[in-house]
TrEMBL record:
Keywords: ATP-binding, Biotin, DNA-binding, Ligase, Nucleotide-binding, Repressor, Transcription, Transcription regulation
Keyword Repressor: yes
Gene: birA
Name of the protein in question: Bifunctional ligase/repressor BirA
Residues bound to biotin: S88, T89, N90, Q111, R115, G116, R117, K182
Residue ranges for the DNA-binding region feature of this UniProt entry: 22-41
This enzyme's EC code(s): 6.3.4.15
Amino acid sequence: MKEHSIKLAILRALAQGGFHSGEELGTMLGVSRAAISKHIKGIQAWGVDVYRVQGKGYQLAEPMQLLDEQTLQAQFGDLVELIPVIDSTNQYLLDRADSLQSGAVCLAEYQAKGRGRRGREWVSPFGANLYMSMYWRLDAGMAAAMGLSLVVGVAIVEALEELGLEGVKLKWPNDLYYQDKKLAGILVEMSGQAGAAANLVIGMGMNLTMPEKTEGITQPWASLKDVANTGTLDRNELAITLINTLHQALTDYELKGMQGFVTRWNRLDNFLDRPIKLIMGPREITGICRGINEQGAVLLETDNGVESFIGGEISLRLSKCE
Ligand code: ATP
Ligand code: BTN
């Protein structure tokens, strides 16, 4: 069997619900109970909350709905690949950018090296969240890529609203927030220029049912299950909706750029009219957040009036004096 296939088969069995004994799993997969016990440890290391009860066997602490490649490919054909265990879906597409067609998607259940901006870790436990990336060849070139992460963020929040999920907001430039906690992040990366065009990979990680005991996240976080009306959400359908949303947002952006976009962003800005600080290396500036301008720069009102700030090195935080 391939490297992770036993663990994946165990997870498929556990995802059905109920208890599954080591013996039953071992017989099903043609391995010993000791081997099953070892694989369960590996599954726990992927961030899955699975426990054992003497005499009954193993059970998941929370229900898990796995992604299904057939369901996804019924919608998108070979454009979408599901690779359950991966280093990073962004890296996977970046490595293959030369042979991909715009709109190609990679999804995963677990990322061993999921990443955020500036090489920070994106914690990616198995089966609990969504990790997806889309390749896009942007004819407008690299300079247009900054606006793109803003446009994608707005499109995703609006898609959630259409599903009846209210209260998800945006943090400039690349995060989705719920009740002042980070729900999702967007990461736009480039694999170099193809003539004037840019080879882009747009990645999104969205927490759906992340176990409360998940370790390694250095700031408050939320899961989509915290939002009202998410009880009946189907994980595969949500993935399909978000892939369609991403595709549409990129197509629109190619046609219209940021035109008409400021109002849409400002309606959803989590920090609009609130005191914030912008951190730029050793420098910090505090003021009141006034949303964004047509170039996608964040606007900060200080004693000097309203100033705009743009660039990948800027971090926005709530200022303590709220
Ligand atoms: P900024 O982008 O403004 O600098 P940021 O802190 O959100 O701020 P990012 O690089 O965008 O930084 O994202 C990485 C941050 O996200 C880290 O603080 C990390 O602990 C946190 N993080 C990692 N995984 C998750 C996750 N699954 N859910 C929420 N937050 C996460
Ligand atoms: C951020 O907030 O800094 C962006 C986080 C982006 C995480 C996603 S998960 C899918 C894709 N693959 C990665 O390694 N990162 C992005």
